[in-house]
Amino acid sequence: MADGIVLGYGDxxxxxxxxxxxxxxxxAGATGTGKTVTLQRLAEGFSAIGTPVFLADVKGDLAxxxxxxxxxxxxEDRVAKLGIQDMEYAAAPVIFWDIYGEQxxxxxxxxxxxxxxxxxxxxxxxxxxxxxxNATFKAADDDGLLLLDLKDxxxxxxxxxxxxxxxxxxxxxxxxxxxxxxxxxxxxIEQQGADKFFGEPALKLTDLMxxxxxxxxxxxxxxxxKLMQSPRMYATFLLWLLSELFExxxxxxxxxxxxxxxxxxxxxxxxxDAPKALIEKVEQVVRLIRSKGVGxxxxxxxxxxxxxxxxxxxxxxxxxxxxxxxxxxxKAVRTAAETFRPNPALNTEEVITQLQVGEALVSTLDETGxxxxxxxxxxxxxxxxxxxxxxxxRRGLIDHSPVQGLYEDTVDRESAFEMLQNRAEQASQQAAxxxxxxxxxxxxxxxxxxxxxxxxxxxxxxxxxxxxxAGSQLGRSLVRGLLGSLFKGR
Length: 490
Known about the structure:
By secondary structure, this protein is an alpha/beta fold. The protein has helices at 35-48, 73-82, 111-123, 127-142, 150-162, 164-171, 176-191, 194-197, 231-248, 268-271, 276-289, 308-311, 327-338, 348-352, 391-399, 416-440, 456-469; strands spanning 5-9, 13-16, 25-28, 53-57, 94-98, 105-106, 219-223, 260-264, 294-300, 316-319, 359-363, 375-379. The chain has 2 domains: 5-108 and 201-399, 3-Layer(aba) Sandwich (Rossmann fold); 111-197 and 413-436 and 456-469, no CATH class. It contains 17 helices and 12 strands. The protein has a 12-stranded mixed β-sheet with strand order 2-1-12-11-10-3-9-8-4-7-5-6, with helices on both faces. β1 and β2 form a beta hairpin. α4 (127-142) packs across α5 and α4 (127-142) packs across α7 (176-191).
């Protein structure tokens, strides 16, 4: 099986067929066994055939993909050992991204886009507090109020607390204590840098799906070394991005190659302490997103880090060495061995613990879509640089990037914060105007419930603003998808 993206060499070349690149995959193995090089080779291979790739650089050593390789004695020794005749040292077209805007272009999304489910996960809320977030989003969505940044969400939470009695029938019980706890959680993630992410201009997915002038797919590399200091934010951000892809991309069926390959490094962070409901949603998205031409690849130390329901959907497997020092390690080795199609010439369970650095057990799909028998293979080295880039090299690439200037300046348009502020001012003015007449007719009081009084800001000015800022929305209510993100452009 020499056609496709050659991953390594065993008894014969082991390759991944592009038409099955959207069948997802797994790269697993203990620290220091060669996962990063395999990941780089995979991303480089997809880029070479014109498929864009998105990946997170958690250690800073994938940025070297932007520079040609060569001059590395270990790599040249492996090339000679494998007898590779067509080795070409070349850079991949790379776009650097960074939530904090320090090592790449800023990458942003809105609170409304993220939705209540993922935001509750990010804030680490309990069930009661999650209910408050759900009610807050529902109230905002019902009235077409866009929550763009954290100040919008804070103002909406304050509005919910202030009008809790009026809203109890429609949205349930909203207590000041629960709202206060959510507000404190917002302060925590703001201190971790979430305020850099929430806002506009929001990322356009088309900017992750670019190809270069020579037909190669751009590799979007997210600088995640700083982001990894907040693991929950890292995991939630990647899930948000996956949900955006799922909601926005159209169904395409089977393609000659994926439209985009999405790589989750440190995949265990996606599932650690995740509620069952969220894992079920992720499983559903992973299962369905392949029909939209997106391949999802998980990279982790232990295959047990990935829930079994998701693990069963990962058809392309690269298993580096595992250690078997503890009962859990031994279970991981057995699990990994059992997921491969057996090779009569290999004792898979035994070989997993004997693999050298750069070696792996590999199984992909053949022409019929059937898993190939597992092979012990030496991974083909990438043609781009292995390791980091210098600050000057990074800056030069950012300055000449195809998205330079599109995301650097923030935009703060009218949204929930401004609309609710206007409503408060209008209510204050109305109260001031009514006060003299009320004093003249104090002997004939009129009681009017707040709920019976039309809400001017939400019913009129809000709808007008939403139609201006999101012209694709039909009606006033905002509609959400599987992971709670907005349906946009539908």
